[in-house]
């Protein structure tokens, strides 16, 4: 949460002349409910099942190579999702920043994040997820950096152009 997945993903897609997809948007379109509604009405387990179903559909729909896909913060945690991405040779990028910066970015009043909670909960969630995030193809530090330079680093380090 707050890593800049959407913002960086959109900039990366523009630079690569690729389409940008946000998994959360696709989940909402598939299910007909917002993410907060799914969490409230059906719970996180049901949300994760829908998330996995939609991700599988995307990963198996060619050509994924011309797509930049933003995953929700919990999607990469799931072993099945990670294996699906690996099997389909999808580059994965962990946008890393200090917890205090991520929490500050998340604290915007116009953005609803079902798992945000209090700062202590946020820190615990990040600490629990971070070792798995580090399994991404590429880890990029985003603290105090502009979006364009982050996108350019991803392109350069993954050899995308």
Proportion of residues in extended strands: 5-15%
The CATH first-level class comes to Alpha Beta
Q: What structural category characterises the helix and strand content?
A: mainly alpha
CATH fold node name = Rossmann fold
Oligomer state equals single chain
Number of strands: 4
The pLDDT mean sits at 89
The end-to-end span amounts to 28 Å
Low-confidence runs: none
The string of secondary-structure elements, in order, is HEHHHEHEHHEH
Radius of gyration: 15 Å
Gross geometry = globular
Sheet with the most strands: spatial strand order? 1-2
Note the total helix count. Answer: 8
Number of domains: 1
> What fraction, in percent, of the residue positions are helical?
55-70%
The major sheet is characterized as: 2 strands, parallel
CATH architecture: 3-Layer(aba) Sandwich
CATH superfamily descriptor: P-loop containing nucleotide triphosphate hydrolases
Description:
A two-stranded parallel sheet has the order 1-2. A two-stranded parallel ribbon has the order 3-4. The mean pLDDT is 89. With 161 residues, the protein is mainly alpha-helical. Helices cover 55% and strands 10% of the residues. The chain has one domain: P-loop containing nucleotide triphosphate hydrolases (Rossmann fold, 3-Layer(aba) Sandwich), CATH 3.40.50. The protein has helices at residues 5-16, 23-31, 35-42, 44-59, 79-87, 99-106, 119-133, 147-158; strands at 19-22, 67-70, 93-96, 138-141. Helix 2 (23-31) packs across helix 4 and helix 3 (35-42) crosses helix 4 (44-59).
């Amino acid at each position: 949460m707050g890593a800049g997945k959407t913002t960086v993903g959109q900039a990366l897609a523009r630079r690569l002349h690729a389409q940008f997809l946000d998994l959360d948007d696709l989940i909402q379109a598939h299910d007909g409910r917002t993410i907060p509604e799914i969490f409230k009405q059906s719970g996180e387990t049901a949300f994760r099942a829908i998330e996995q179903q939609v991700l599988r559909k995307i990963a198996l729909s060619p050509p994924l190579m011309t797509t930049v896909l933003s995953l929700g913060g919990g999607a990469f945690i799931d072993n099945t999702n990670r294996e699906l991405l690996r099997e389909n040779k999808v580059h994965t990028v962990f946008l890393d920043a200090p917890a205090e910066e991520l929490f500050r970015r998340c604290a915007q009043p116009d953005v609803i994040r079902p798992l945000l909670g209090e700062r202590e909960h946020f820190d615990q969630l990040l600490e629990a997820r971070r070792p798995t995030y580090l399994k991404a193809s590429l880890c990029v530090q985003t603290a105090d950096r502009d979006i364009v330079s982050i996108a350019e680093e991803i392109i350069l380090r993954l050899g995308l152009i």
